[in-house]
Design goal:
alpha/beta; Spore Coat Polysaccharide Biosynthesis Protein SpsA, Chain A; 5-stranded mixed β-barrel; two-stranded antiparallel sheet; 31% helix
Length: 274
Amino acid sequence: MITKCLFPAAGYGTRFLPATKAMPKEMLPILTKPLIQYGVEEAAEAGCSIMATITGRGKRAITDHFDISYELEHQIKDTSKEDMLKEIRKLIATCTFTYTRQNEMKGLGDAIYKGKSLVGESDPFAVILADDLCVNTKGDGVLTQMVKLYKKYKCSIVAIMEVPKKDVHKYGVISGREIEKNIFMVDDMVEKPDNDKAPSNLAIIGRYILTPDIFDIIKDTKPGKNGEIQITDALLTLAKKGMVIGYKYEGKRFDCGSVDGYVEATNYFYNLSK
């Protein structure tokens, strides 16, 4: 049922300057694979075949990565290095990649709204923020877990994790009642609240399943925190109708939008590869 995944990737990645001056932060490698490829692989595992990306100026490397490089293919043909392209070749062969631009940085809600022309207005779709790198070595990927949950509840879903109270100001935060183990019916959502005003320590990470009615809600959502259109504010409208679930997923998440998280992910995947 979920065949389309949206990748908001228009941000500047200023925390990684000067590396991101000319290279998209989504193309920063964890070992030999860029962040966005990990996200696309997670989406493909969950059953998505249409990968829709919201890009911006200076993001051509993302488009080129998910395309055939004839010169490179020719140079490494019949060599031991050819096997290093096996995973990306499979994605290119089995997925459709579409793109549009977010011309101004107006927030995640606006970026998702820009994706309406790519994912359509009638079907539910997934959203992955590539700099939130998720892995589950003991079973299904995070998005696969959420797709299975959608089949049961048929409503918007946000992936959540517990964070220290001192860090809640960095996230969208939810509150709600637990209806099953690790599954919460959301009744409140706040974008980056003050630490002493957060409704809980359950923070939203970069994995969503959204129903198509979100587009009309985003359209009517006023700018919120930092003057941006926040997806958290739009989802609150659905939450008040009992139509949003928070899912405490199984697996690990690395905040690769920060240098500390990026280094942690690199070390983790290096040790995993041994």
